[in-house]
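Help wanted!
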Amino acid sequence: MPELPEVETVRRGLDDILTGHRIEAVHIDDSRLVQPRSSRAVERRLAGATVTSVGRRGKWLLLELDTGDTAVHHLRMTGSFAVDGETLPHERLQYVTDAHIVRYVDPRRFGTLEVGKHAVMHSMLDSKLGPEPLEAAWDATVLRTSLRGRSTTIKAALLDQRVVAGLGNIYVDEALHGAGIAPRVRAGTLSLVRAERLVVAVREVLTLALDSGGSTLSDYRQVDGTFGSMQDRFLVYGRAGEPCAHCGRALRSATIAGRTTVWCTHCQR
DNA sequence: CGGTAGACCTGACCGC
DNA sequence: TGCGGTCAGGTCTACC
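Answered by r_m:
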């Protein structure tokens, strides 16, 4: 589920709830969650720490702690957080703070939690992630440089977190539609003009999604329990066979880069 | 180097 | 109602 807009929405919710508060206890109920597996050690390591900020890098959430540690969550497909209330189905972890109980829920248990020293966690993320798409440092020239010589499709390239951090299957399809670029275009052949259009389209769709509180499909919701509304604004994702919003022709679907991909064969070249 | 399938899990949904 | 098949927002690994 969660791509950059959903993870950023969760970050803002967690920042409001956790920053400045002391973690009294952590309860982990999923032997797969912690990497590398030692739930009890992580529970002990986090207990007593105060959260100094909640950050995000790509699709990763970072709880910065006054102990010098960073707790790094990845939600994968179905992870989400909720605050207070009753125990939820598929609850895998609780942060019990001096003010709230923060619950991590993940039906499919793909999500991960890693805890380590601040510098270690940040360099781990930097080693696997490219630039943030909403930061000015990422532009058409940077994008073209990262795509140079790559024969793979633009769809696969945008899903590659080393090219740009935070896009997933939904927002790649939406951005390619916005930019008028077909998903099978060879990444290394993108002209500067088209790269500029793509950067603009990525920023537009991510900004719209952030303003909508993210997309709610089945699992995702905001930390306060409210739903996002970006799913109502998708122009291509989940709309195979429906008319293109621009030209009215039926949207086409195929598997590209191993993922279901939807696009308009007329508007996207 | 690059690409694609398979694995990791569970639930929802569809057709019979 | 129940069963089997298919699909899902992500990433990593094995293999060609």
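OP: Thanks! One thing I noticed: Chain A has a mean pLDDT of 94.
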